[in-house]
Amino acid sequence: MILNQRTQALRAQVEDLVKDLQNLSQEIGHKDLAAAVGELRNRMTEPFMFVIVGEVKAGKSSFVNALLSADREICPVAPQPMTDTIQQILYGEKEEIIVVNPYLKKVLLPVEILRDIAIVDTPGTNSIVERHQEITENFIPASDLVIFVFEAKNPYRQSAWDFFDFIHRDWHKKIIFVLQQKDLMTPEDLAVNERGLYDYALKKGMTDPAIFTTSAKAEMEHRYDASGFSAVRDYIRTHVTGGRGAALKLKNNLTTSRSILDRIRQDLDTRAEQYRADTAFREDIRLTLDNQERKSNHQVGLLIENLLNGYDRITRGIGEELSGGLSFPSMLVRSIKGIFRKQASIKDWLDELTKKLELQLNGELRIKLNEGVVDLADTVQQMAKMIDLKIRAGGTVVKSDSYIFEDIAEKRAAVLKELQEAFSRFMSRSESFSDERLFPENASVSPNIAAGSGAAIVGVILATVTKLTVFDVTGGILTGVGLLFAGVTAGLQRNKIINGYDEEIAKGRARMQEELDTKLRGYVRTIKSRIGDNFGELDALLANEETQIARFNGHYAALSGRLEEIDGGLEF
Questions:
Q1: Most buried pick, 53, 60, 384, 547, via CB within 10 A?
Q2: Which has the higher per-residue pLDDT, 424 or 75?
Q3: How far apart are CA 313 and CA 51, in angstroms?
Q4: Which helix (H) or strand (E) holds 235?
């Protein structure tokens, strides 16, 4: 009674554990896994369940008939394969067949052994009938003992051992082997195959595999000493009907739960590995953008420095010419010549000097811009191209056929596909690099740009905009200088004029430097930001993944701890 109460208490704990495991499976979103755990929950209060598996014509149905001591066919036997459905054989006060669906029926029988066990007779492992394997595999997780029936003459068929791998490796189920139809072999040949089966099972990872040799024909003919079924029934009495069945069933339930948790752990590890890879990929994108921005800004600095050097050299030369021309002897000569000829007056000279400054500034700066913008455009293009290559080379750890996280893999694949497509669209649209939000004061530039990919026209855009900028700047300089010169008359305040020129030149230089720096660095920063905007959906996915993985890890750890505590309380 004490043992029974203890077993009942442990069963309640196992039931709670399996219920929470099912909830976790549903949270993860894998319907098949949740269904398998649900099936385990449904069968926890059922009798100890044997699942009979093996190839077509291995003698499974005959084995079941003989095991039940039935003098008639409960499971149909015929020369051709007969088991076209799964048959779950249970105890019932009266004989009854319940058709659950086209692939499953329950057979209720008033057979005493069925009070303690339930038997599931399955189609052959090499059957090609639709859904047989799928439904058979749904019974395996909830099974308490798998009886693998081989044809005694050939226990080495590949399809049977492939199914063995599924049962043993994936679900860690307790398995016993039966060599059926031993009456068709000599004792010597049977012993050879029994030993071969034993050795092969050892290679497959089993420890001391249990093997029984039977003849259903001898059992049905009441030749019990020759049938081998007494050994099978002794095994059942020892492990099931002898009082250990309830505890063993709980142990099996824990084993199945552990197998499910192992699968969750493996896939969580894979999911975490993918998260780390995606996070590293995203960080690589950020670092690449930062690096390319630095390179582009370095080119901006070189371009502005080159322009300013040219500006300084030209304005210095004009300043020297102005200073020399405003000396008293020079002014006196021009004044005298102006009296006798209508040319070379001071005003004419100043107008010519102003035009000379304008021509030299605009001419040289245009050339320097054309040369420098090519380098700048190249670094901006490289920023986009390098990100495009990294997107296309992104690796995948979680596969679309992942047992548990296939929905996550599919969602991730969809996000990356959309990222590739969105970035391709970004690269191909000229407005990504040229719309009015980039250069609002020069919005008219964009519509006039020749057709082509966004990256290919960056140089044209930059060149156009920077030229307009420099012309505005130099125009401002020349306006100031022109106004200064307009009031100059012979012999008036030479130093004041030169100082005024120097001030205007300095103002123009500062304005040009500021304008170019603001526009070009702002352009680079805006393109970088636009590239980064393409990763919004991936960033959201990664943020969600971090939260989900942490939550699932917490649930897994709690369930694992409870399972080990319950398992430690089971005594045999």
A1: 60
A2: 424
A3: 95
A4: helix 229-236
